[in-house]
């Protein structure tokens, strides 16, 4: 019974044996309350099977006794706690969307969404997903008013397929071909066109936390380009003759790679965890590696490659002479760099600039010298850092030469014993120097110095750690002004990135 006794007792006041006993019970019940409630559910909803007569003719492996032992306990579904249900309705959830795009509580307009609604993790998770569904609905409606609509893969259809695995990306009007295309590759844990739920669900609102503010600022920075309405490759979808078009936008979707046949939609792993279950204690529905994924888009790297080969390299959606400006977010940017490293000759003439956030790619992963040179000159990255915004943190290192050595290699090359030449000044006093008292003689003396072994080993160890943790960047790296979560980088830098894209465009256009 030692496990049911508290480890510490507060004996600072007047007590008796009854107080100690009650205190012990209370502490034990608080610590094991979850297990106790689970046992109560099992005991209340368990029925014993009917007693079976012994059959001596049955073998030991298939005897009725073994069968009865295996069927001794049975849980009834109606006795288990119900899985929570929250409707994806802002009003029912107690929230509203303000004209400025902030999601606030109806009764307390100064308060925002709070994840810890209850002490039950499952209730909080399901409620959060219902709230996020409302946010996504509002987001896609606003993007639709800006003529940015979903294109479903791998069917390449603007109509949602019925009971066929698919996932959406967002594109500007198909058929309206622009000379400049901004391609956004999000990270693999976020929903389509959402940068940060932390910002979207709070003061930043839908403008800073998603692609809504990005698109608005893009059209205010870039000038209108002439629509290639007479292009023979145009499909005629949403085409306006002799109209003016803003730079096109294509937003990839490496996060929603799971597909639900039940709901006929693509979703992230976080949304899959919030799926309705038979009860609150049932496990998450299993993910089938083939049936619950989309062909050609089962991984984020496959998705990026599919979009580049079938959308960006397709004259039906993107003009073959259009300049591409890429924004790669976290691991989404790493997938882009990996693809370009293997297929750089195909896209080298079309990509104008690349912006990355929190990349992990290093120069050792770039095997194409032409791509490495391009990234050095035409790419920038922003990292989480306590430094002020846009402070230069690091530049890409030049290619190593055969004679160059690292600091740790230089230390390892040091001999155990070193000879040091010491110069000292001596005033001559010998008789042969009579009359030359004002002269000073310099003598050299060699001294053997034996370094202390422990100190040298410690220096070498520190040097090796510095070499190991030193960031090997592929392009100029700047501080983002964000010091906490990397998903907050894009809301902090997107205006500056778009202005940089505009400068690159003006330089190329002359």
UniProtKB/TrEMBL annotation:
InterPro entries: Arb2 (IPR048263), Arb2_dom (IPR053858). GO terms for biological process: regulatory ncRNA-mediated heterochromatin formation. It comes from the Eukaryota. One of its GO terms (cellular component) is nucleus. It holds the Pfam family Arb2. One of its GO terms (molecular function) is siRNA binding. Gene3D superfamilies: 1.10.287.1480. Residues 86-388 form the Arb2 domain. This is Arb2 domain-containing protein.
